[in-house]
Description:
By secondary structure, the protein is an alpha+beta fold. It has a single domain, classed as Aminopeptidase (3-Layer(aba) Sandwich). 32% of the residues lie in helices and 27% in strands. The chain has helices at 16-26, 35-46, 95-109, 124-132; strands at 8-12, 51-57, 60-72, 76-86, 114-117. It has a five-stranded mixed sheet with strand order 1-2-3-4-5, with helices on both faces. Strand 4, helix 3 (95-109) and strand 5 (114-117) form a beta-alpha-beta unit. It is globular and about 40 Å long.
Amino acid sequence: xxxxxxxxxxxxxxxxxxxxxxxxxxxxxxxxxxxxxxxxxxxxxxxxxxxxxxxxxxxxxxxxxxxxxxxxxxxxxxxxxxxxxxxxxxxxxxxxxxxxxxxxxxxxxxxxxxxxxxxxxxxxxxxxxxxxxxxxxxxxxxxxxx
Length: 146
């Protein structure tokens, strides 16, 4: 089925009803969350600057990203992508690339000088996608449960 470029839009997801729709896509990336946890976490994260945006094709939400601006000594003002996922049935159709491009433009609009995201070491397909979009591995990220 062909898609018309006019039917594809990128929109910020700000209302509770929009978040509920976003959860249906986000849960593919974050399966450990239920809807109530998701809504509570997003509410708390918004106080730290977290925002959600989605790609819609013909009214259907097909990709979601969560992002924030961080200021750090090592990076200055940077744009950080917490979450980025295209629903499994729509991958490979350009939605992720469109969303990644939108995020980079948004980072520039917000006067950020760097763009960052972390990706789990097991997500090989995502890594190939990020490399193909011009991103590179700039550091190791270390973690430990507390």
